[in-house]
Amino acid sequence: MVKLQNRRKGLWAAIACYIIWGILPLYWKLLSGAGAYEILAHRIIWSFVFMTVLLLFLGMGPLFRDTVKSLCTHRIKGALMIAASFLITANWCIFIWAVTHDHIVDSSFGYYINPLVNVFLGVLLFHEKLSKLKWLSIIIALIGIIGMSVELGRLPLVSVSLAFTFALYGAAKKKLHINPFVSITLETLLVLPLALWYAGSLYLSGEGHFLVGNAAMNWLFIGAGIVTATPLVLFSSGANNLPLNVLGFCQYLSPSLSLLLGIFLYHEPFNVVQITGFSVIWISLVLFTISDFREQRHMAGK
To answer: Mapped to the 3 state alphabet, what secondary structure does 30-95 carry?
Structure first.
């Protein structure tokens, strides 16, 4: 009974997490007048503040201290931590820029192909073995990306950049094995000086949008820390209480919501080329999900 309750709790947490990530463009749109880089700077600053308060509330101060000591002792882990920090910062930057420059559809495409990039990096970096069906799904996805690039006359750079920065970030985190709350606090701490410098420079030059009389804008900047940390907490609960195949299936909720927002709320173009590209990716994801489900069921039967 307790196990079933935990699974339900994990499922609702995962669904809530991916819904928040899916509708996050709504939040960044409210701040779009400030510019992507200023939004990013405040997201870093207030995420660090919120995560620090959360760590203290959860009594994770000693764990944070021990993690920092461990990273300082092991140079490779320290380098991976720095890499993870800059990769997630780059991912946030690209995503915020995409939202504020009317490329929400492109960003959703990036997060659709992200699981397939994860699998590819698993083979490349961790020598993981794939089934024939998963290889087929990756090949189909690659054909879809190449086809879109040929038709558009350019590489869908926003989509590919989002997918690879997040996948590489995930690979770095996999090597680190750090508590997610401690990790995100460290990741924001490492780029905090740059964020403070940029936000401070804008304020002193009179070009910033924080503390300039618009109370709503000020609170939206501060709230960036909450909307960043909240889904992380929910994701942690989901990951701890759900099988990976269920969690993996839930992740498609996020780009689906973003896609719907981009098309129907913000009226971004969704032409034949994009429809074809998305269709190919969806086919590859169906094959990937079927293969993953079979593998999980086979492992459960052992």
So the answer is: HCHHHCHHHHHHHHHHHHHHHHHHHHHHCCCHHHHHHHHHHHHHCHHHHHHHHHHHHHHHHHHHHH
